[in-house]
Amino acid sequence: MNTWDVAKKWKEMCEQGKNLECINELYAENIVSKEMPGMPGEQISGKQNVWNKSKEWLENVEDFHSSSISEPLVAGNFFTAKMGFDCTFKDRGRQQMEEVCVYEVKDGKIASEQYFYSME
Question: What's this model's pTM, rounded to 2 decimal places?
Fold first, then answer.
């Protein structure tokens, strides 16, 4: 798959709530994931570790009130999208958030991901 194919499949799977399946199918074994500086799991690597981080995040969600994903924007082997959500977490209550996600694709797999968001 080229970068555009990966980006379309990523968006489709995320919109269907298949976040963990997306990691299994589209992520490289040596994926590097970066959160904002100072956040838990600021930088981790390896598909299983990224899967575990995502599963932990999803299990902490009590209720999804809404979510959105913009159309991906592709440039070379990178794509980006804006994600937004309004959900209630078990440990911190209701939270609304927007983030910009940047992904790098190598050999048809997502090789890196980085998230940018305000930490208010």
Answer: 0.93
Give the separation between CA 33 and CA 68, rounded to whole angstroms. Answer: 21
Average pLDDT across the chain, whole number: 95
Half-sphere exposure in the Cβ direction for 101 (13 Å, CA): 20
Q: What pLDDT shows up at residue 39?
A: 87
pLDDT at 120 exceeding the cut of 70:
no
Q: What angle do CA 85, 94, 87 make, to 5 degrees?
A: 30
Q: In this predicted structure, what is the pLDDT of residue 88?
A: 96
Residue 116 one-letter amino acid: F
- How many CB atoms are closer than 10 A to CB 96? 10
Q: Which fold has domain 3-116?
A: Nuclear Transport Factor 2; Chain: A, (3.10.450)
Q: What are the residue ranges spanned by the domains of the chain?
A: 3-116
d(CA 97, CA 12): 20
Q: How far is CA 94 from CA 40, 41, 62, 82, 117, in A?
A: 19, 21, 9, 20, 17
